[in-house]
Amino acid sequence: MIFKLYTLLYYLVTAFLFPKEFLKRPPQLRKKWLTNKWGIFEKKRLSFSQKLIWIHAVSVGEIMGISKLIKELSQRYNLLISTITDTGQKIALEKFKNLPVEVIYLPFDCPFAINRTLTAFNPSALIIVETEIWPNLILTVSKKIPVFLINARLSDKSFKRYGKIKFFISPIIKKFSIIAVQNEEYKKKFEALGVSSEKILVTGNTKFDIEIPFISFPWENLLPKPVIIAGSTHFPEEKLILETFLKIPYRGSLFIVPRHPERYKEVETTIKDLIKSKKEIFFLKLSKISNLEFPQKISKFFKLIILVDQIGILAPLYRICDIAIIGGSFIPHGGQNPLEAIYWKKPVIFGPFMDNFPFVQEFLKEKACIQTSSNNLSNTLETFIKNEDLRTEISEKAYKLLKEKRGATEKILELLSKYL
Q: Does domain 2-205+407-417 have CATH number 3.60.21.10?
């Protein structure tokens, strides 16, 4: 009865939000979003010669975190990847375009839409990444094929919330055939919610297994040093970081990389407002860099600000920086992934809000990254700029920890091989 009530409420909320969700998509994506959400697919596209596995990863972070796993699985299976966000779609389509992968939007959490998807693709298993708990998805799919939760985590906030509705959540998560968690703490939380310990295995965090392609930028050696990249920023972090950068009495370059593409124009306006009376500052968008004009233009400017208005470029772009600032951490958002910068042995600075990445506590303990407040960001950044030895020491410690924590992908592959 409780799940019928959930489904009814879901229908009502979906009907209310549907126009907004449909119209916020770019026109070229609306048809795909609409048909996928209702479980309507073109059957002529679905010709698979081998077993198919369905993987659900909500957005960019989850896609990047399991990219190695996807590449390994694609050697043996066809894959169906579902996401919720448009950016997740774009990254998955670009990153796995040469693999036997179909990319769709996750259908609405309605039994009929989910059953249509199962009929269209006939997957042999469903793999859900991290903490995407959709009741009807799990309950409906688990009646026909095994469902796995991998790279699973439960924040304190989610654990408390689920604890209050344990009567509802427990029957759902018990349907997982296996839950592969990132650490022992998460295992205890799932056990407290009613999952038997035999179903829960600690495999580590696949985000440590990242592989980032090397991209050479023709203009990278022309940038005023030091190069600072503020990655995956949220409102109003851009203003904070820009004001800090402009205040510091050193030459240099600042790349601003907003987390959400729909904010590019807003961030561009913020930058232009802050530098409109500063003739010694040069601003341009990454998409507009001209290799011929770039050297002549920047040589006479004291500082350079570049707005990165392209998605999927941040991870390889971190390679060219001297200092990385992690967005989403100076507001109560929970932070963004610092490992992409650490992968390139870059020193990392982030704010007080990194709840989404609890592993940073170990990095802080080992003095392998720097956590600072908004008020102290200027002093922290200036210290980093002046002290190259400090930057090297911190980045080397962080990279060592990264290497030590690799291996989750292999453990999950070994685990899945027993069931797929």
A: no
